[in-house]
Specification:
Blueprint lengths: L1 H15 L14 H42 L4 E6 L4 E4 L1 H7 L2 H6 L16 E3 L2 E3 L4 E5 L2 E11 L5 E10 L1 H33 L4 H29 L2 H7 E5 H18 L3 E6 L5 E5 H17 L6 E6 L6 E8 L37 H11 L3 E7 L3 E9 L29 H4 L1
Helix pairs in contact: 1-2, 5-6, 8-9, 9-10
Length: about 425
């Protein structure tokens, strides 16, 4: 009996020293055998758990190695920080862009991780949510775009921050060169034409007077085209954010209507404003939004024959967004033109019911600019049309009460009042 007890003791001591294969090989025929058998079963279970844990660790290491290889191959720089600010991962591209972690600290990029938001932005990937908009960081000869995002655990607890870095130096230089070109072009156009118009306007000859007015009209149009090109280079969330403030939507709509009412009347058209829900506020740049809505009204005027009508409407707010509609009973849009209406510099061939092509001045920038302004404000825009019946443009803008709210997709089936032929005796009261 003493020998069997010593055998159990030896096996227990071996197991304690890490010899996981040691066993007593006893059967539970008596008390000592039961003790040895129980020790063997415990050792078997421990060995099974240890083997399983080893397999999991090996698999985790392989997955981690694979993940690090993938992250290292990213064309963008990636920096991962723990909640205390420690850099726990930095890929090769980030090292190339920054040079060292010391540059990372001195650049202020690490401070993007300190962004605290009551509501996270849109999901960039499962468990990763944007913290604010991308920021530009100047590193001397380099200009980087840095986007910070919060990393959340399965329990939705923030456990760290990832910062994506992209070299935008070439893009910034191209923007600057474009701006300089437009500035020079504006001066080169304005100065000689101003002098020519001024000289011609002093001439006693009425023909020269008329010629001067025509030059002035085309010069103004050319200047407007240059302004449009300036706006194309400047439009974006960062630029919109600088000039945004709470705007009462009905005030904005009435301002646009007043801007264009006389022009509509001169074209033989009636312009109506319909407000279905008052007191809505959006956060935006007033000048840009007036320009965007004005472009839509301008198009409605251009492509609606005399005697027609157009409306600027505020629909009911839905899911934290204000919905608007610009509607006309003009010539409509050809099916082959519809896929390209938002394409920059695309000019369609609007045609009347009797086959006459409507030719108006322009470069095909209006709808593209409007779309970019709406997108920069967090909204969406869609167009419906019926040939020789009319066109309706629907767009939405997020209300100021909602931040980081994902706008629903515009569902045309849910929008009331498709584009229809407006009656000649159309009145606002009829719609309300």
């Amino acid at each position: 009996m003493t020998g069997r007890i010593e055998e159990v003791t030896v096996v227990a001591d071996a197991l304690a020293k890490g010899h996981t294969v040691a066993r007593t090989q006893m059967q539970p025929t008596d008390e000592i055998g039961a003790l040895g058998h129980a020790l063997d079963r415990y050792a078997d279970r421990t060995k099974h758990r240890e083997d399983k844990l080893r397999d999991l660790l090996l698999r985790q290491r392989r997955e981690t190695s694979y993940l690090l290889t993938v992250i290292d191959a990213f064309p963008e720089g990636v920096v991962v920080q723990a909640m205390d600010g420690r850099v726990v991962l930095i890929n090769q591209r980030a090292r190339e862009l920054l040079g060292s972690q010391r540059v990372f600290r001195s650049s202020g990029i690490h401070e993007l991780a300190n962004v605290v938001a009551d509501k996270l932005g849109p999901a960039l990937a499962p468990g990763i949510y944007a913290l604010g908009d991308p920021q530009r960081v100047n590193l001397g000869e380099k200009m980087l775009s840095a986007q910070a995002a919060a990393i959340l655990s399965n329990s939705q607890k923030r456990i760290g921050t990832v910062i994506a870095l992209r070299d935008i130096t070439a893009d910034v230089r191209q923007e600057q060169a474009h701006e300089e070109l437009l500035d020079r072009l504006s001066k080169d156009v304005a100065q000689p034409l101003t002098g020519l118009v001024s000289t011609a306007s002093r001439s006693p000859n009425p023909t020269i007077h008329a010629f001067a007015r025509e030059i002035s009209r085309h010069a103004a149009r050319l200047q407007q085209m240059i302004v449009d090109m300036h706006e194309l280079t400047a439009l974006g969330p960062e630029q919109v954010k600088r000039g945004q403030r709470p705007l009462r939507l009905e005030t904005l709509v009435w301002a646009v209507a007043n801007d264009w009412r006389q022009i509509a009347q001169a074209a033989g058209l009636t312009l109506h404003v319909i407000i279905e829900q008052k007191g809505l506020y959006v956060l935006g740049d007033e000048l840009l939004l007036r320009r965007a809505i004005g472009n839509l009204v301008d198009n409605a005027i251009k492509y609606t024959p005399a005697g027609g009508a157009l409306t600027v409407e505020i629909k009911d707010a839905v899911d934290g967004a204000a919905y608007l509609r610009i509607r006309d009973n003009g010539v409509g849009i050809l099916p082959e033109d519809m896929p390209h209406i938002f394409t920059l510099f695309y000019r369609g061939t609007p045609t009347t019911a009797d086959g006459q092509v409507i030719r108006v001045p322009g470069m095909g920038q209006g709808l593209n600019i409007t779309q970019r302004i709406i997108y920069a404000h967090g909204g969406q825009i869609q167009v419906r049309t019926k040939l020789h019946v009319g066109t309706a443009v629907y767009f939405n803008l997020p209300l100021t009460a909602v931040e980081g709210y994902e706008l629903p997709q515009l569902d045309m089936a849910d929008m009331e009042g498709e584009t229809v032929r407006l009656p000649l005796d159309f009145r606002v009261d009829d719609e309300l």
